[in-house]
């Protein structure tokens, strides 16, 4: 849902970059105004209710103008053109694009999450060449441990180094103590 806004804006950014489209430049101004409202909410450190009120007052009118503008310009561009595709993307996902306005708990987009999963998406094709199913499974376990360590606020290198040094003498019955959500650094200097 939230990813649509980032993707919709990105389609116009690419169109403007590649073709210096005036329509794309104008669409980007509208999207910029929506993101300006979010910047204001962050600046004011608003809670969900405050964000929803600010969005209702400032983002909703911008979104309504943007929708009318998109409909108007869609009728002016040829089907199949890059501009038509960018406009169709936004109009076809309009409900998802504007859902955040009604809910102060929703982010305007999900760029934060996309940035965290990008390494997985980029690595997918590389992991096809792990060598064997067992190698791929081992790589998946290691990547899961690394990401879990990050999510638990640990430096992955420090975490893995400590765990690998402890494993040979650590009792099997206490292995769950070494999982990222329970791990405590070992000896000083680790």
Report on the structure:
This protein has eight helices and no strands. With 190 residues, it is mostly helical. The protein folds into two domains: 3-110, no CATH class; 125-178, no CATH class. The mean pLDDT is 89.
Walk me through the topology.
Layout lengths: L2 H17 L2 H23 L3 H27 L7 H11 L1 H9 L8 H13 L9 H19 L4 H11 L24
Helix pairs in contact: 1-2, 1-4, 2-3, 3-4, 3-5, 7-8
List keywords for this structure.
single chain, elongated, mainly alpha, 8 helices, 190 residues, 2 domains
Largest sheet: none
| Number of separate domains | 2
Task: Give the class from helix and strand content and strand pairing.
Answer: mainly alpha
Anisotropy-based shape: elongated
Number of strands: 0
What share of the residues does DSSP label as strand, in percent? under 5%
Low-confidence runs (pLDDT<50, min 5 residues)? none
């Amino acid at each position: 849902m939230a990813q649509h806004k980032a993707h919709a804006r990105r389609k116009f950014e690419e169109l403007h970059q590649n073709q210096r489209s005036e329509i794309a430049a104008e669409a980007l101004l509208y999207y910029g105004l929506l993101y300006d409202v979010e910047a204001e909410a962050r600046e004011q450190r608003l809670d969900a209710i405050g964000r929803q009120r600010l969005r209702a007052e400032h983002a909703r009118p911008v979104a309504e103008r943007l929708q009318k503008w998109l409909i108007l310009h869609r009728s002016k561009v040829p089907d199949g053109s890059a501009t038509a595709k960018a406009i169709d993307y936004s109009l076809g996902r309009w409900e998802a694009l504007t859902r955040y306005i009604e809910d102060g708990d929703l982010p305007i987009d999900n760029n934060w999450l996309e940035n965290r999963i990008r390494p997985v998406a980029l690595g997918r094709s590389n992991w096809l060449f792990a060598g064997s199913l067992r190698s791929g499974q081992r790589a998946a376990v290691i990547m899961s441990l690394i990401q879990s360590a990050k999510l638990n606020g640990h430096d992955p290198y420090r975490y893995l180094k400590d765990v690998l040094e402890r494993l040979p003498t650590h009792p099997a019955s206490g292995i769950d103590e070494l999982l990222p959500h329970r791990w405590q650094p070992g000896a000083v200097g680790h």
